[in-house]
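From the shared-data thread, chain only:
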Amino acid sequence: MSKIEKFRSFMREINVDAFMLHTKDEYLNEYSDELTKLCGFTGTNGLLIVTKDNKCPFFTDGRYIIQARNQLDQENFQVYNIQEEDPPKWVKANLTLSTSLGYYLQYFTVKEMRKYKDICKLVPYSIKKGIGRRKQTVVSHAIEHSGESSKSKCEKVAKSINKEAEAVLLTDPNSISWLLNLRNESAKYTPCILGRAILYKNGNIDLFIQDKEHSTIEANLDNYVNIFDISELKNSLRKLNSIITDPSTTPMSIVNIIKNKQIVEKEDPCLLHKAVKNQTEIAGAINAHIRDGIAVTNLLHWIKNNISTELRAEEKILEYRKEQALFKQPSFPTISAFNENGAIIHYRASSKTNKVIQKDGIYLIDSGGQYLDGTTDVTRTVVIGSPTNEQITHYTIVLKAHIAIASAIFPYGTTGGELDTLARIHLWKFRMDYMHGTGHGVGSYLSIHEGPQAISKGNKVKLIPGMVLSNEPGYYVPEKYGIRIENLMYVDKQENCFLQFKQLTSIPYDRDLIDVQMLTKDEIEWINNYHQFVYKNLQNSIKNKEWLKKICDFL
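Structure, as tokens:
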């Protein structure tokens, strides 16, 4: 019996017509072993509806369309681009009001499930086994890196609790980790603690962590913080009469506990505070990116001068990062892709797909590091051997889009959605585009994808000084190659109520792929200034200073 048929047997046991699963767990982590085992998809954004028969619809965004079609059995699954056909629309067209759609209470949020209200019969199912043991190593994130005490943060955020509620329930592990200046050193990629928290009006906070009994807590918590096992959350919530929740991060399993309470729905009050980095965090990010720049630039020199493989290059960048002070771990799985593998936007090299990086071709590496003083994320595309005219043209167009964002000057009140077009317009001229956002927010020794800000279509969050974002336009030629250029940067004040971006990433671009004739005078000046910034930051620490000097020389 196939995996999908076994799951259908489970559906018959619980008497549902269809069942919905996605890639996030109850702590919003972007993975789901169950989904991977069921259909083979290994990306971080996917939703599957298992039907009684016929092909099961699978929804993902543009980053993963090629990957999903490669990984999913086409006989059992139909892949949809979520931007063109979203799941609620499919459900409305293919199910009826009397059709039962099952889902896991722990894994779906209030906001997600509201989309399906009144279009089918929703049947919640609770996972009896729970999430399982996840031993945590909880440590303090020192004020020399956080820049503000946890007590100060709690008092500041507590002011957002109005007269309508007694407390706010925090369900995003990143918000809780930021608020309490705590990190989980056992977590992979994102060092956030797994748990929930209740913040009261007086600034006191109750922290409920997953599997407290088997976890190591090395942090010294002050008396305004009480720590419990996650199993105690239910009782604490029942004692409250009113509470603030964020429907976009609160799972349906928690809503069931508080459904008879007065619930005030608001955006997580930590989000904006966390997104706007203080001076200490910005200084830390600057220093972390210089050290990260040394590691990645050393890799680029190595990759240009050695025959390697995608997996060996992935190992090599980790080796170089481990040489840097305050490095803890990668901030996400490295994308190491040569030639046609680079056209798969979120490609993961494996023993089956591992290409030798040699002869003529385009190599793309998207990687990042978690440092105690900052989180990094950078993509560089380089040529191995001799580039074609088409490759040079495509790279230069993407570079022009990248510069358009990096050099933008914009008034207070501008949103990331408004800036997104500045990059795409350079590709649109040539009937080109890319199926992902231009930029995402980044945490401080936390999540590589941090909201609410983003440079992407439809994002309406105003950009504020101190926000850190990526700038990563790209272009992908299926079965040939992919090009993406990514820097991190932060929003900084200019004069007369205008804002600009300051570059954090300190890594050169590939001169062999730049057509200077396609660049304006201002673009050439920007690249030259950026390369001088890179050379100044790296010259005393890079393994091959002469090569760095040559690649950073004026165009």
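DSSP finds 17 helices and 31 strands in the chain.
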